[in-house]
Every structure is written in structure tokens, then in C-alpha cells.
């Protein structure tokens, strides 16, 4: 998952600083650096063919959501093309860029983990 999910021991995103539309404070966490990335790298090393990795966020940062919470039925604030949507798109790009620094590339990404009628983004 991109950041935390229902199975995480804590709730977090990579951009928890409010109104950080430029994602200046975007950063991977210890969960990524100490757990997710090493496991993916090890899997890559022992795989007999290239891995097809995919990623999906559980939620956008709370400051980008209509309900201001990590859980619940909040949706992404604003309208397509506005600063919230552009920042959310850039969040995905930053995630890919950060993981690429560890020689991990992704085959696919999904904008949300839930079905379309449950907009947990």
C-alpha cells in the first residue's frame, strides 16, 4: 500500500503537513524504508522473472479530504483540475520517484483501494 492501510499499526500518509500543496514535506516513513522496501528488494532478487508491482493508497492526506479524517466516507476536496486534484496526482508521482531511488518501479497504480461507490480517497 501507499502509506498506511487497514492492516497498519498506525494511520499515516506521506504528506501529513496541512496545506502542503507543493509536497515539500512529502517523505517515506520507517515502515517503507525498514520494511516494505527491503522486502520488495529481496523479492526482486530471488524472482525468476521481473516483478509486476502495483500500488494503491488507502486514503489521501486528511487535509485534502472533505471529512478531515483518515477513515470514513470523506472524498477528495475540490473539483477535477483544481489544486487538491493536482496535488493528489503529484502525490502519486512523488511516491513513484521515491521508490525508484531504491530501484523499485511499478507496473500499475490504482487511485483508491475501495470500490468506486465508496470514495475513501
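^ C-alpha cells above, recovered residues below v
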Amino acid at each position: 500500500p501507499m502509506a498506511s492501510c487497514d492492516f497498519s499499526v498506525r494511520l499515516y500518509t506521506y504528506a501529513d503537513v496541512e496545506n502542503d500543496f507543493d509536497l515539500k514535506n512529502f517523505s517515506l516513513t520507517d515502515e517503507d524504508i525498514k520494511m516494505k522496501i527491503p522486502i520488495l528488494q529481496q523479492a526482486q532478487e530471488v524472482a525468476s522473472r521481473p516483478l509486476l508491482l502495483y500500488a494503491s493508497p488507502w486514503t489521501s492526506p486528511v487535509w485534502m479530504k472533505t471529512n478531515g479524517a483518515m477513515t470514513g466516507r470523506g472524498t477528495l476536496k475540490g473539483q477535477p483540475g483544481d489544486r487538491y486534484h493536482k496535488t493528489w496526482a503529484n502525490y502519486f508521482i512523488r511516491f513513484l520517484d521515491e521508490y525508484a531511488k531504491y530501484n523499485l518501479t511499478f507496473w500499475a497504480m490504482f487511485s483508491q483501494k475501495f470500490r468506486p461507490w465508496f470514495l475513501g480517497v
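The first strand starts at residue 54 and ends at 55.
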